[in-house]
Specification:
There is one protein chain. By secondary structure, this protein is α+β, with helices and mostly antiparallel strands. The chain is about 40% helix and about 15% strand. It has twelve helices and ten strands. The chain has a five-stranded antiparallel β-sheet with strand order 9-8-7-6-10, with no helix packed on it. The chain has a three-stranded antiparallel β-sheet with strand order 1-5-2, with no helix packed on it. Strands 3-4 form a two-stranded antiparallel sheet. The radius of gyration is 21 Å and the shape is globular. The structure holds fe (ii) ion (FE2).
């Protein structure tokens, strides 16, 4: 299976992972053959890419690092927690206490799944819709932060603390008007100033409700601070930041960069990593290194050009080696003539490196898709 941009989809391609939108409504189930009207509908809903089976890597599945149902449950609970924090009635207080318990239960599941599956690499991009961006982003920041924390050797109780803080890190955004949050264009100076208050709004909400105190507080308040003092809202110095917000800061920026936003499509992971390198002095070096162990610059299904003249598609990534995937060679760079497939493992031959990433429209479609007869 491969993540294919919606503009490159063709009728006859088979959906490989179910596509949902908004509040988890099912749009397309796995196994459905695409028709033109389905593709139009995806475009209308602004969904930019979906997973389909194609001829290049029909044998390769892309598994999420946690179970689909665990992720779905977490997104729903985070949504209930974040939106529920606006209501200060006493009946809502009891509801939020229940949600808190359920969030800890789902964190138990996430931590358990991540601890039991050793050496995972995040290859899967979850397909998000603008409406639930904040909630699915929060869950992904939690997953990435827990993975980083496991690589750093943190204790199980700490994994749950950081997961809860990551779930809630953007809590303050529930106070920011949707017209600013989902604005398709650049924010004005005033709108940006309002957006940058969300750590403060989040802190005020938590303090007022007395429900999610404890370690979550520092993540909510400090996830946009940077160790070089150039973060916000206060421009704190490194000594004023705990390890939790430092870990969440890295996951938060990475996940925001690779996500589609109303004002730009998501960056490919290798590009997101380059952008993060440019900002590296704001992040803790050890945390960044551990973070990179768990993600891949070239997720499964990416078209990569190699410095030995071949183009291939990534079929496997190895934990700890984000830039050295296993690649199935499909054609030569100079003539795009299809080749009998063979595989190279970039960990075995260190002279071979990825020297560029190809977009779907740069690879002739006859290489990866045969029209149904
Ligand atoms: Fe934030």
């Amino acid at each position: 299976m491969r993540l294919v941009p919606v503009w490159a989809l063709r009728p006859g391609m088979e959906v490989a992972k179910k596509v949902t939108f908004g509040n988890n409504s099912l749009l397309l189930n796995a196994g459905v053959k695409l028709q033109m009207e389905y593709i139009q509908q995806l475009k209308k809903l602004n969904i930019r890419a979906i997973y389909v089976h194609d001829q290049l890597i029909p044998d390769v599945e892309i598994e999420d690092v946690i179970l689909d149902q665990t992720r779905e449950k977490a997104v729903k609970l985070v949504q209930a927690a974040l939106t529920g924090m606006r209501d200060d009635s006493s009946s809502n207080y009891c509801r939020l206490l229940n949600i808190k318990e359920e969030l800890y239960d789902v964190l138990d599941d996430i931590v358990g799944q991540l601890l039991s599956a050793n050496n995972l690499v995040l290859n899967l991009a979850d397909i998000r819709h603008t409406d639930n961006y904040t909630f699915s982003h929060s869950v992904n920041v939690a997953v990435l932060s827990i993975m980083t924390s496991i690589s750093m050797g943190l204790k199980k109780s700490q994994l749950k603390d950081i997961g809860m803080g990551a779930f809630l890190h953007d809590l303050g955004k529930v106070v920011v008007p949707l017209s600013i949050l989902n604005k398709p264009g650049r924010l004005t100076e005033d709108e940006m100033a309002e957006m940058m208050k969300h750590p403060l709004y989040g802190l005020e909400l938590v303090k007022a409700r007395h429900i999610f105190n404890g370690p979550s507080l520092s993540i909510i308040y400090k996830h946009h601070e940077r160790i070089n003092g150039k973060g916000y809202p206060r421009g704190l110095q490194e000594s004023e930041m705990e390890i939790y917000p430092k870990i969440c800061a890295v996951s938060d920026v990475y996940d925001a960069l690779v996500s589609d936003r109303p004002y730009r499509p998501g960056f490919k992971p290798h590009r997101a990593m380059e952008i993060m390198e440019e900002e590296a002095e704001g992040f803790d070096l050890e945390i960044m290194q551990k973070f990179y162990h768990n993600v891949s610059a070239y997720p499964i299904g990416t078209f990569v050009g190699l410095n030995d003249g071949y183009i291939g598609v990534v079929v496997k990534n190895v934990h700890g080696h984000p830039t050295r995937p296993q690649v199935r060679i499909i054609c030569r760079k100079d003539d795009f003539e299809p080749l009998k497939h063979f595989e190279v493992n970039l960990l075995d031959d260190l002279k071979v490196v990825v020297d560029r990433v190809y977009e779907d429209n740069e690879i002739p479609s006859y290489i990866y898709f045969r029209e149904p007869s």
